[in-house]
Amino acid sequence: MMMDCGYAVGLTLVLAIAVAVAAWFVGRATGKMREANAWVILAIIVVSLVVLQLGARLAVMTLWVYGWAGVDPLGVCGGQLQVVTFGGTLVVIAAYVAAFFWSFRRTRKGA
Predict the structure, then answer these.
(1) What percent of the chain stands above pLDDT 70?
(2) Which spans in the chain are helix H?
(3) Spatial distance between the Cα atoms of 72 and 81, rounded to a whole number of angstroms
(4) Which residue of 31, 48, 63, 87 is 20 to 30 Å from 98, comparing CA positions?
(5) pLDDT tens digit string along 23-56?
(6) Left if phi > 0, otherwise alpha if psi is -120 to 50, otherwise beta: which for 12?
(7) What is the mean pLDDT of the chain?
(8) What is the pTM of this model?
(9) Which residues are CB-neighbours of 79 under 8 A, at least 6 positions away?
(10) How far are the Cα atoms of 25, 51, 101 from residue 41, in angstroms, in the given order?
(11) At 69, which helix (H) or strand (E)?
């Protein structure tokens, strides 16, 4: 039964939106740089590492949410919660990369 996947999908969407907003600001800061600035580059690296850690922790956060809701995590999503959270991890990382490059290009073009 796929009816219990709402928590996993909802958590993935919330995390992807938060990551995309962070990537938007980082992309704009990078696009506004005229020459390489060590502090901005360091901030980009740190934010990227945080995004990767959040993506990697999505499965743990999802298990915690299902446990908090009193639902058996092994029975949700037709027993395929690991596959759903793996796909969610890819969505989070793709949201970061897409938002970063989109805001970077918009800033460089002056739009």
Answers:
(1) 96
(2) 6-32, 38-56, 58-68, 81-109
(3) 11
(4) 63
(5) 999 888 888 888 878 888 888 889 889 888 988 8
(6) alpha
(7) 87
(8) 0.84
(9) none
(10) 13, 15, 15
(11) none
